[in-house]
Design a protein that fits this description.
Helicase, Ruva Protein, domain 3; mainly alpha; about 130 residues; about 75% helix; about 0% strand
Length: about 130
């Protein structure tokens, strides 16, 4: 059975963003960090890890939803604390939005990964409300 269209689009969006982030961090960010001062370079590294954290959390959640669709897990199982999207203290931080010292490419990844993380968090909350109430 095919997964729902929203799932495929969201999964593809996440995978594309993961590939873009990997390429950026492997090639562009490294050069930009080397040109920046020590403090700015450290800040860039921290924000790159924030992008990675968001995308990892989102992909893990999407894979759980795929397991539900395939009949491997129940929706109730995915709502256990150990299966839910986490890392909100790191992933919801938006301090980058006011940091104009960060390169545009990294800021773009931060913005898009944040919007994706927030969207998935809302989806999970909607699921939990529907199932648990």
């Amino acid at each position: 059975m095919q997964p729902p269209a929203f799932f495929r689009r969201t999964y593809d969006e996440t995978m594309d963003l993961m590939v873009e982030a990997r390429n950026y961090m492997s090639y562009v960010e490294r050069r930009e960090r080397e040109r920046a001062g020590a403090f700015a370079g450290l800040r860039m590294s921290c924000e790159a890890m924030r992008v990675t954290s968001r995308l990892t959390q989102v992909m893990a959640w999407l894979l759980m939803q795929r397991a539900v669709h395939e009949g491997e897990l129940s929706v109730e199982q995915t709502l256990a604390d150990s299966c839910r999207i986490s890392g909100a203290d790191v992933c919801l931080d938006e301090s980058h939005s006011s940091d104009e010292a960060l390169p545009n490419g990294l800021r773009s990844l931060l913005d898009r990964s944040h919007r994706l993380y927030v969207r998935i968090t809302r989806l999970e909350q909607m699921m939990a409300q529907r199932v648990l109430h």
